[in-house]
Amino acid sequence: MIQVVKSNIVNAPNVPISNAVVAHGTVYTVQIPRDPQTHAPSGDGGIEMQAGRVFEQLKHVLECADSDLSHVAQMTIYLVDKEDAAVMNEVYKRYFTTAPYPNRATVVVKELLGPNCRIEIVVQAVQR
């Protein structure tokens, strides 16, 4: 059975996508930068701000799914500029501080759907 994770981060009602779901003890989520007040997609700021928003949102969603950052097994990070990787990694290290670290790929893409978004992450984590 697939269950929707209830959090304060939701997609627009006209988009048939769940922000996060749980299936058989695994949490699946995708996070893009969002305004912390309205939760609307927001490409404001540079990579440090956007990465911070993405990882804060991930932390929140995982907590709502009875998980946490230490339970992230796999992550794919999409960046629109390879020059952003170093700063993104510095932000990443603030959230993932102890081993075992998530298995991770970082992919550079031409663009993302969110206006001016520089980062998007796809995450699989296990519940506690």
Structure description:
The chain has 128 residues and is α+β, with helices and mostly antiparallel strands. The protein has a single domain, classed as 60s Ribosomal Protein L30, Chain: A (2-Layer Sandwich). The protein has 2 helices and 6 strands. The protein has helices at 47-64, 85-95, and strands spanning 2-4, 20-23, 26-31, 72-79, 103-108, 119-126. A 6-stranded mixed beta sheet has the order 1-2-3-6-4-5, with helices on one face. Helix 1 packs parallel to helix 2. The model has no long low-confidence stretch (mean pLDDT 96).
Rounded to an integer, what's the Rg over CA atoms? 14 Å
CATH fold-level name:
60s Ribosomal Protein L30, Chain: A
Continuous helix count: 2
Query: pLDDT average, as an integer?
Result: 96
Q: Summarize the main sheet.
A: 6 strands, mixed
Estimate percent helicity. Answer: 10-25%
The figure for the number of domains is: 1
Secondary structural class: alpha+beta
CATH class term: Alpha Beta
Summarize the helix and strand pattern as letters. Answer: EEEHEHEE
The tally of beta strands, per DSSP, is: 6
- What is the name of the CATH superfamily? RutC-like
CATH architecture: 2-Layer Sandwich
Q: What portion of residues belong to β-strands? A: 25-35%
Distance between the termini: 18 Å
Kindly report the spatial arrangement of strands forming the biggest sheet: 1-2-3-6-4-5
Q: Which residues form runs of ≥5 with pLDDT under 50?
A: none
- Global geometry: globular
